[in-house]
Amino acid sequence: MQRPVTLFTGQWADLPLDVMCSKAAKFGYDGLELACWGDHFDVRQAVQSDAYCKGRWQILSDHKLGCYAISNHLAGQAVCDHIDERHQSILPEHVWGNGEPEGVRSRAAEEMKMTARAARRFFDCAPEAVRDRLTRVVVNGFTGSSIWPLLYSFPPNQPGQIDAGYEDFAARWLPILDVFEQVSVDFGLEVHPTEIAFDIVSTRRAIAAIDDHPRFGFNFDPSHLGYQGVDYIRFIREFGSRIFHCHVKDVWWSTTPTAVGVFGGHTDFGDPDRAWEFRSPGRGCIDFEGIIRALNDVKYTGPLSVEWEDILMDREHGAKEAARFVRKLDFAPSDIAFDAAFAES
What is the pLDDT of residues 177-229, one digit of tens each? Predict the structure, then answer.
């Protein structure tokens, strides 16, 4: 059985869930990865009400769609970040509050705990057909980082500053992860610039900082690694047991020098001088066949979730094309050696 092909709704949160489901079904998806913004999944309603959860499932089922993960990237970002006015635009009012930074971080942490509880209640209400294919209950998201501004070490970072950032991450996220443990839900960090883990080495350090907490893993997204020059297939092989979810998202990067470098040059996506751009799956530089082979090697059986981003393409065209691309891409591993029959009499 092939892995479910799903569509992440984060970039479609301007649409009501019923409309989103209708489109996704027509595009050819098996289900949705529901974002906790827009009206797609309300954490506070879900944690309080089986009726709300069953209502979400009814909308999905009416369109013959499943769901295998929810995602709360926006609240997670605020847990460790230096808070400023940019966060107000992405956070719910009850998390932003009066904007006092430590208050925002504290409320964001509580929101992530609540998200774990909401996910448990939601998936406990799932139809049997979804439960039969569900390998784990996953909340995807971000962590934020107090040390991202120290990425380029000038003025030179002082002794202990980076260590303090990982200690801050552990202090803020271990209580959250303990709630995930209590309700048997896994957290999948999308390894990504601005997070506590953004490449292989910082990922190792993040795991060590939280003492290998079993509920901390990854929403593997190669697009955020490829343009940095990080070996994204090596990431799968090193952290395979912690890959809880997988995004199919592509990125193009230039093989020749450009006017704007990897840091982005304070330009907007779509600027022709940029060195890299997110692209619709199959239209960038990511080796997706290598990814599927590596995912097979680490026995990943969860969904392949399209996170569709391409600033120069119509999103409905892109999402439909991406569904076909992923279905053609995926294949099961072999359970025999191809030359085994040579030895048969």
Answer: 999 999 999 999 999 999 999 999 999 999 999 999 999 999 999 999 999 99
249/221 Cα distance (integer angstroms) = 7
- In degrees rounded to 5, what are phi and psi of residue 71? -135, 130
Which residue is listed with tokens 């799968």? 236
- Identify which of 137, 143, 157 has the alpha carbon closest to the alpha carbon of residue 108: 143
Pick the CATH number of 5-335 from 3.20.20.150, 2.60.40.10, 3.30.870.10, 3.30.930.10: 3.20.20.150
Q: How far is CA 303 from CA 31, 134, 137, 156, 246, in A?
A: 9, 9, 12, 42, 7
Whether this prediction's pTM lies above 0.90 is answered by yes
From CA 276, how far away is CA 249, in angstroms rounded?
13
Contacts of residue 60, Cβ cutoff 8 Å, sequence gap at least 6: 21, 31, 32, 66, 67
**Count of other CB atoms within 10 angstroms of residue 241:** 11
11 DSSP assignment: G
As a whole number of angstroms, the distance between CA 203 and CA 198 comes to 7
**192 in Cβ contact with 142 (< 8 Å):** yes
The candidate with the shortest Cα–Cα distance to 94, out of 85, 105, 106, 107, is 107
How is the chain split into domains, by residue range? 5-335
CB neighbour class for 272 (10 Å; exposed up to 12, middle 13-18, buried from 19): exposed
Residue 240 corresponds to which tokens in the numbers above? 């395979």
Burial tier of 155 (Cβ tally within 10 Å: 0-12, 13-18, 19+): exposed
Question: Are the beta carbons of 8 and 34 closer than 8 angstroms?
Answer: no
The token pair that represents 45 in the structure block: 């309603």
